[in-house]
Amino acid sequence: MKLRSTLIQYKNRPWLILCGLAVIILVLYGNAITNEFTFDDINNIMHNDYLRSANGIAQLAFSPVRPGEVLRGYLYRPFLAFIQYIIGSVFGFSPVPFHTANLIFYTLNCFLLFLFLKKLFNERIAIVATLIFTFHPIHTEVVASAVSITEMLAFLFSMFVLIAYLKSSASIKYLAIVSLGYFLALLSKETAILLPLVILLLAIYRNEPLRHYLHMGIWCGVPLLIYFMLRYHVIGSFLQSMETQIPFLNNPLSTMPFFERVINAVHILGRYLVLLFLPVQLSADYAYNSIHLLISASSMLFLISLLVHVILLGIAFVFLKKNTLLSFSIIIFYLGVLPSANLLFVSGTIMGERLIYLSSIGFATAMAGLYWYLHHTWNIHKNLLTACLVIILFLFGCKTIARNTDWENNYTLFKSAIQYYPDNAKANYNYAVLSYERGDAEACQRHAEKTLSIYPDYYKATMLLAQLEIDRGKYNAAERMLMEVPSMPDNIESLHLMRGFIYVQTNRFTKAIELYKSALEKIPHSFAIMYHLALCYFDFKDYANATQYLQQAIEIMDHPDAHYYLGQIYLIYFDYNNAAIHFAIAISSRQFGNMSILNLIYCKTQLGEYQQALKIIEESIARGVDEPDLYLLAAYSSLKMNNIPKSQYYFDKLRQSGIRSCTQLRFSSLCQQLIRGIRE
């Protein structure tokens, strides 16, 4: 009896529910913590310089979008950026802290959902619905994708708002929480804009008096007004920057007439319902041509989807008062997905599992309601229903754990996408690029060609095939391909660099110079174009122009490779002081690091700074640099300092490595001097 009373005492303790959810979520998503940054994580977190400083966050929040800032042209989420800045500053901008943060936020969200449903309905409904929501594999994108913390934050503040409203819709304190929570939800993700409609739905259920509707309008209207003022100031529009356009590949509905767009949007809403009931063919990307577009209202897929939506919405409004659970489930599904459904306006993507994160509450509550309805109305034994629920949760959990491995890295992610949606043009192209980076030219070519067979205007795939031809030394074939590629704002640099490389490899330096100069007229601040133009002049032995363009390139980007070539030019003119300055910077170059060390040491020897030269040599050897030229310079410097034993030591090391393996002709005279000096 004592044990039983203890269990009853702790049964309703919220912290036990929270701990239980934490354990479940760790089991379900623990294998996602060590995943790499993938897909949108790369641009939004890994390469997002704004997140590296408080000034950057302030710019995101208050500075107007500049031309060319495509990402900011779509999104205004400064509070999300602030949270990412905190995580990165404290724990580092690496995948593990961000994946861990997602697990923590997901745990809090599931717990807040439990509290909300318990307050709105009862604990039995809340427990079953929360378990279904927690285990559902459609949430793997939200949890496993680091950038989807935006969904987490919007959901988190939405739950705070709804719980606060249910606590007391007439209390100034709770209404203030509603107002603040709504504002933070908006600053986390734009889809939170429809949260007042969810509150309105709750008000109808609770038969709130008219004055409560007015209170709600004021307390939600003020943060909404402030949000739109800030958004308009930064982006220049209430929706998206007027300069940005939604890429066709991301959302082919963006170019459709209104009626055709609605037909396909209705069909896609039906696909969301299918994925909630059968989460089998899940994908990180549903870009063109994953979903075959409909062009007629007579399409069977459209008619079936429309019929299902009409029936569900009809049931929701008929039973708005009679069956609050069923009507709530249906309405919350449609309200949650409406901002990104391509019905009211064009969304940034045609479809995405993360977009129904909030909507999936409706599925979870509907299934929980069905569970208790079958038990109480049809008298189905509770143990049988519980067994069925456990089986469903087990299957959901297995799919979730397996699905996390798809997000291990970009290669596994897009491999999974084309496994379920082989006609996805964007996924095929990304998989081709990743195959190229892994050295699998055959897979690269196969999927690049597949991309073009799906979408012939995908010029990036053509450029990738041209790169394969360049790697094979088939410059004429590559040039023919590149001539067919249109010059676009996002490919001007890469297109001109590829064509210029072909001209250089085929000894058409004059043509390469003309090409690079024409490119600079369009993109004058391109380091790569400026740098390669300088190299053309360098190869052409026009060192005056080479110096001019290298210096301009360094003004754009202080890159060590440019310093290396400047050092080479000064070396040609026997200006060892300036050469040494640039070689010292060029040591950090991946390509020319060792050569820069050798040239720096050579400059020091020519300046008579043998002690400094020897110090650099010994530091380089200690770091593992193993170059015969290094031993030659060490022996020579030691000889000049009259340290014969050390000179003899390094000369022996040089002979062991092989004097003939010395790479720089200019060192031959040093070698002769060295041999004479040691003999004497």
UniProtKB/TrEMBL annotation:
InterPro entries: O-mannosyl-transferase_TMTC, RgtA/B/C-like, TPR-like_helical_dom_sf, TPR_rpt. GO terms for biological process: endoplasmic reticulum unfolded protein response; protein O-linked glycosylation via mannose. The keyword Membrane applies. One of its GO terms (molecular function) is mannosyltransferase activity. Keywords: Membrane, Repeat, TPR repeat, Transmembrane, Transmembrane helix. Residues 78-220 form the Glycosyltransferase RgtA/B/C/D-like domain. The keyword NADP does not apply. Pfam families: ANAPC3, PMT_2. Signal peptide: none annotated. This is Glycosyltransferase RgtA/B/C/D-like domain-containing protein. The lineage of its organism: Bacteria, Candidatus Fischeribacteriota.
